[in-house]
Amino acid sequence: MLPIRLSKDSREPIYHQIEKQLKALIAGGHLAAGTPLPSIRALSKDLEISVITIRRAYQDLEAQGFIETAHGKGTFVKEIQGTVKEETMTASVRAEFERAIQNAMDYDYTAVEIKAVFEEILEKLGKGE
Amino acid sequence: MPAWIEIKDARKNVDDFQLGPVNLEIEAGTITALVGTNGSGKSTLLKLMMNLANMDGGMIRILGKPVDGGDESWKRHITFQPQKQIGWNAYTGNELKNLIAPLYVKWDDKLFEHITGLFDIPLNKRFGKLSPGMQQKLSLALALPRKTDILILDEPTASLDIPSKKLFMDLLVDWMEPEDRAVVLATHQPDDLRKLADYLFLMQDGQGIGLYEKDVLTSSYRRYWLTEMPADSVPGELSRDGRQLISQNPDATEQFIVAQNIQVLDDQALELEDIISLLLK
Amino acid sequence: MNEWKQASRLAAFELKASMKSLITIFVFYIAMSLLVLMTFDLYLEGEFRFFDLLFLVIFFLFPAWMKSKEFQMQKMDGDLWTAPSIVMLQQLPIPKGVIVKSRFVVHAVCSFPFQLILLISLPVVSENFRSLMTPVTYIAFVLIWFALSIAVGFIMAASEAGGNFKTRAIVKSFIYMIAGIAAVYGLIYWFAGNGFVRWTMTLATDWTWVSVIVAIVLSIAGWKYWQADMRKMIKKTDYL
Q1: What's the number of domains chain C is made of?
Q2: pLDDT by residue (tens digit) across B180-196?
Q3: For chain A, what are the domain ranges?
Q4: pTM for this one?
Q5: C86 contacts B87? CB cut-off 8 A
Q6: Which of A39, B230, C78, C128 would bridge with C44, disulfide CB 3.0–4.6 Å?
Q7: What ipTM does this complex have?
């Protein structure tokens, strides 16, 4: 079973959520090249999503070179290039920051306040040298 | 690829009850759940698919063959598990297997043994002497190994205990692994819908309300808590209760709310059961 | 032929599943029948007219009643009356022709041996019968009754297809049936001057070869007709 957690309350399309999380797992090295992915039907049951949506996510990921389907054998994680890995990680990290900053701005935080919070958390997590 | 099951304007009158005209197409690789209140005509529709009754109009084709035609070969490619097995009571599980297995070229004896072992089904006891739950387990053990292209299940989990329900789902998911099979199941179990169904076909009073892709359905409805409720009806509005609004078109609703300068305190997707209840109201 | 083979396989399953009760009832019915047959001599002397009715019931209905309850025609959901096997077999990939034939095999197995024992018992229990019949006329007599077994008795097999009936319609048709039997019964008495069984004996002795030919034709026609009729009924009935 994959550590994928979907937010059904989110307005972000489900297939997009699946794609994003799978990309992160692959780019982050949690799913090494050659790792078999669950079948579309099995993932559909685990995530409680129709096979139509899962198939769409798999097709997108395949088109973007993250996974490949060997006919009759299943779907596997593909070896991805360093640049793609890099880009994916950057995109993922950026997206998280954007969400957090957007949240802060929704609460009317100023840029200075946001930076202060950022510094403080960085300090707390022990990498503030 | 042509639809594996094709139902066109199928109609049937039974005393005061009127089924149809029903239109539905089932494609390979999908699980379609028939959902409806009691007496909405689900079982009647399934029995029409098996040609167990004569239609008053319309047409049903299985794998391209009209079910009420002279060619009955389509029955080899379809498995039907009714809500209540009729005529099975006098036979033991072993006898039933010996009766059924030779009728299907792809019969999988290993799978049969796997399922009977998994559910601990006594095969030397007469079907009529088994508990309803055990009867249902034996029915499944005699249905899945037929490995037909189409599997029709009428409330297959109604009498199963919780662990068995889970096992059944795993079995069915495995069964669907070759992507050229199709399942139609009538069910009242929310778990069956959430974990198994790709499409929902909603029925009410003998009428088909619509065929919905599950994820499209769940993303089409949303509940909003607003700072204030507009007096006039909101685009997409389905129902309102105080400052709570249920929309069946979240995009239109949100656009309108922003334009009206109304704040959304919270918003939430609706549970599948809630959506079904709304549609069957 | 392949259809008969498949039908026999299905029939064997059904008969095997009810083997124990089938044998018990068979023995019980034979014992009861022999008791009734004790009055055959009396009947042939014109003393016991009621024998006719008893013999007809035994000959035609006992074979149909032999099957255990699970295989008998019964009321299902709604207005459906049918034998459960008919519903079960239709849900499996079995052609309608085979379903019909399997019913006929089951009924034949239940009726033919039983009826043969009855017909063999007649000369054994009755001195009058022995003196009235020669070996040839006896064979003609047996053929007449086998023809009746098929042409009339297999209504019981064909009717297992069932149908969608209201209870009132069933009661009505039952009353018509009784009235019909009574009418035929009365007519035969009126024409032949004595009972139905006695009349078939007369046919066998006075019209031996005509009887044999008619019996054979009737057997073949009945066998085919009831199968076609049952097929039609299965098609017509809603098994909902």
Answers
A1: 1
A2: 899 999 999 999 999 99
A3: 14-77, 82-124
A4: 0.89
A5: yes
A6: C128
A7: 0.91
